[in-house]
């Protein structure tokens, strides 16, 4: 069994006034559970959309994504990248989080609105890289 990396985007269904509390709850769950099963990754919330990288053992990642997919705090979950992984991009993070970012938001939107496949995959690897860079900027609450 190998490591797998998965990037998805989804549309938030959270009322804006509840957003901060809900995202904190998601991160608290993620922090505890992910650390217990060896999952690492990064989450971005744009205010309207989520983008998340999840990395770990293939079976663990599939099960987690299935459970995340059933979560009613978002909808229209779309897997953008699903790749075997030789080395983790976020080895130190049970779930890195940097809050709303206009910059990342633009890339999530570009990905959502782009019908061309080659463009999309370029935007997708951009996004994965951006998330990786953000996880390096802040120390903090969700380090493993
Ligand atoms: C955008 C988003 C990201 C999430 N990320 C994680 C995560 O990384 N790890 C985790 O354990 N739960 C995460 N959750 C929470 C799960 O969807 C779910 O609430 C949790 O796994 C418990 O599921 P269960 O009650 O069906 O067992 C996330 C939820 C949302 C909406």
Automatic annotation (TrEMBL):
Origin: domain of life: Bacteria
BLUF domain segment(s): 3-96
InterPro entries, A to Z: Acylphosphatase-like_dom_sf, BLUF_domain
GO molecular function annotation: blue light photoreceptor activity; FAD binding
Name of this chain's protein: Blue light sensor protein
